[in-house]
Amino acid sequence: MLNLYIDFDGVIMNTIDITYKILNQKGIDLKDYKSCERFYRELDWHEVLKNSAPIHDSWGCIEKIIKSQKFNVAILTHVNSLTEIEEKVKVIRQHFRDITIIPVPKSISKTEMLKAEGAVLVDDYIHNLKEWEAAGGYGIRFDLDMDGKGYPVIDRLDVLIDMLD
């Protein structure tokens, strides 16, 4: 079976929209790396996740992917704090009791946490896909505007079932 890693933020849940709105309200510039790092580390992830929504029935799509029995599915997510890990795990466990969850400290590449070679990563962030492919993996961009920026692109997770035959 093919190893399939699915990013959380911006793929499963719209947490990026929520956090960018808060950043804007606080007047924090995305280019101010230190302020952003502190913001994400201190963020109330319980509130963020409570106010976030699944993207295009992501939980139902992941269930379909698992039931297809074509993939070893895991959620691979960058995190900024232990609280973020705890809150994401709580949300994921509301939907799946036995899916593998791999939290990756934001300062470390996802390719450093596991073997990317021959595996698929679905991510909305181009930099992660570049690193993934450089490590021998196959990257698929998740983008609601269907702008792959040079990568195969999807806007709904369950299309992977037929896409990766």
Give a description of the structure.
- The chain has 165 residues and is of the alpha/beta class.
- The protein folds into two domains: 2-13 and 54-163, Rossmann fold (3-Layer(aba) Sandwich), CATH 3.40.50; 15-50, no CATH class.
- Helices cover 39% and strands 19% of the residues.
- The protein is built from seven helices and six strands, in the order βααααβαββαββα.
- It has helices spanning 15-26, 33-42, 45-50, 58-68, 82-93, 126-134, 160-163, and strands spanning 2-6, 71-79, 100-105, 120-123, 138-142, 153-154.
- Strands 3-2-1-4-5-6 form a six-stranded parallel sheet, sandwiched between helices.
- β4 (120-123), α6 (126-134) and β5 (138-142) form a beta-alpha-beta unit.
- The chain is globular, with a radius of gyration of 15 Å.
CATH topology of the largest domain: Rossmann fold
- CATH class descriptor name of the largest domain: Alpha Beta
- Could you tell me the mean pLDDT? 96
- Total strands: 6
How much helical structure, as a percent, in the residues? Answer: 25-40%
Q: Estimate what percentage of residues fall within beta strands.
A: 15-25%
If strands are numbered along the chain, what order do they take across the biggest sheet? 3-2-1-4-5-6
Cα-to-Cα separation, first versus last residue: 11 Å
User: Topology as H/E string?
Assistant: EHHHHEHEEHEEH
Low-confidence stretches: none
Shape: globular
**Count of helical segments?**
7
Q: Can you tell me the CATH architecture of the largest domain?
A: 3-Layer(aba) Sandwich
Protein traits:
single chain, 165 residues, alpha/beta, Rossmann fold, 2 domains, six-stranded parallel beta sheet, 6 strands, 19% strand
